[in-house]
Structures are given as C-alpha cells and as structure tokens.
Automatic annotation (TrEMBL):
Gene3D superfamilies: CRAL-TRIO lipid binding domain (3.40.525.10). SUPFAM superfamilies: CRAL/TRIO domain. InterPro entries: CRAL-TRIO_dom, CRAL-TRIO_dom_sf. Residues 48-197 form the CRAL-TRIO domain. It comes from the Eukaryota. This is CRAL-TRIO domain-containing protein. Pfam families: CRAL_TRIO_2.
Length: 237
C-alpha cells in the first residue's frame, strides 16, 4: 500500500519558507533532543556570527528581564542556514543567560526580506525546537518599527505559524519613545540607522503604512518654478 501523504499550499509572496513543513516525522524524532548532546555544539565556531552583532546580550528592562538585542539588518539571511542559526541562538542564550527571565528587543528597521529575514516559519521552527526551559524564560519580544507587511503577516498567519506562547509575547513598538517606557535609556544600544529611521517615521507617519509622501520632495520645487516665472515675465517685457 502506498504511503500516506499530505499537501501543504503556502503563498510565496508572504516570505514563508516551506522547509519546516516538509521535514519528515522520523527526522524530527531523531533531532528532538539535539540540545542534550554537548558534542553537538563543541566543535562549532560562531566567531563570524559574533562579529556581525545581530544577536547580543545587553542590559535589563524595567521588569528585570535580561535583554537580547536582535538587529535584523545585521543578519545575512542568504548565507546563514537555519540549522546554524538555531545552534547559535541556543549557544548564546545557554552561555550568556543560563537562568532567569529574558526578553528580545528586535529591531526591524530597514530590513530587506530577501537579504535579512529568515522567514516566519524558520523562526517558528527555531523557537519550537529550543528546550522548554529557554522558551518558558522568554517573557517578551519588543518588535521595533514593524512595517505594514510584518503586521499583516503576523496578524493573519501568526496564530497558525507561531505557537500561542510566542504569539502573545510579541509587543509592537512603533517609536523609540515608547520603548523607553519599558526599558531605561542606556540599557540597550540603538544603532544610528535605527535612530535615523525613527526620525523619518516621526516626520512621515504614513511611512508606517507603506506610503511614502512626496518621495521626490516635489513640494520644494515651488520656489524654483516661481523664479522661472519671474524671468519669463522679464523676457516678455
């Protein structure tokens, strides 16, 4: 008798990576306790990822949670595999924050989907594959500068692709000024490009919704047209 099979249809334009859905159940069973094997990570060198500074331990939020800063723009999604990313995150949290509650401050500012985003299903797979202790100690995910697309994907597919525990831990932070209500200034380092992006959003709030008002700054051309009309009047006279 032929083996049972199932069909999973995913929209390609939503940044969904289908690999976690295509993993065979027997392969999952073999890898279930990967984090319990010390030799699994002993020979792994993550110095190249450390240099990128996309996942670093910082200070504390106002609730006393240790902060792991995640800078999306610093992550090279094209060259780092999901498996290696999972090992790296596990090692960082286990070594630098072996006990106690912690939170993630994820900076989505100027992230490019193809270059910096591993995909929502990859993140789900990594989270679900971590030891239960690490998952339980995660208190909050501060999602800084979420774009319209990110909000829509999480709102429509978040409950399906993310476990309930992770879905309800996400807290959107549209401006840095709102982050300081949860975290004291100086407890987490903010890159300059994140500050600059925050200033852009402050002066152009429609950018939050994917609308760029006056992208070519045509409003500033009025003074030039006025001067041209002035010279035209002189020529006519």
């Amino acid at each position: 008798m032929a083996e049972d099979f199932s069909v999973v249809v995913l929209a390609s334009d939503l940044g969904i990576d289908a690999r976690p859905f295509l993993t065979r159940s027997d392969e999952v069973d073999e890898q279930e306790n990967w984090h319990d094997c010390p030799q699994y990570l002993e020979d792994e060198d993550f110095s190249d990822l450390d240099l990128l500074q996309f996942f670093t331990l910082q200070g504390l939020d106002k609730s006393g949670n240790r902060i792991f800063r995640v800078v999306g723009k610093y992550f090279p999604a094209r060259v780092v595999s999901a498996e290696r990313l999972k090992k790296y995150i596990f090692q960082k949290i286990s070594n630098q924050c072996p006990e106690g509650p912690y939170c993630l401050v994820y900076m989505h500012s100027t992230v490019q989907k193809d270059d910096n985003s591993p995909g929502i299903t990859i993140l789900r797979w990594i989270y679900e594959d971590l030891p239960s202790d690490i998952k339980d100690r995660l208190q909050l995910v501060y999602f800084i500068h979420p774009g319209l697309r990110s909000r829509l994907v999480i709102a429509t597919l978040g409950r399906l692709l993310l476990s309930g525990g992770l879905y309800w831990k996400i807290k959107y932070v549209s401006r840095l000024q709102y982050l300081w209500e949860e975290i004291k200034k100086g407890e987490v380092e903010i890159p300059d490009f994140v500050k600059n992006h925050d200033n852009v959003l402050e002066h152009r709030p429609l950018t939050d919704y994917g609308i760029e008002p006056d992208p070519f700054q045509l409003a500033e051309v009025q003074s030039s047209s006025f001067s041209l009309n002035r010279y035209e009047n002189r020529w006519v006279s």
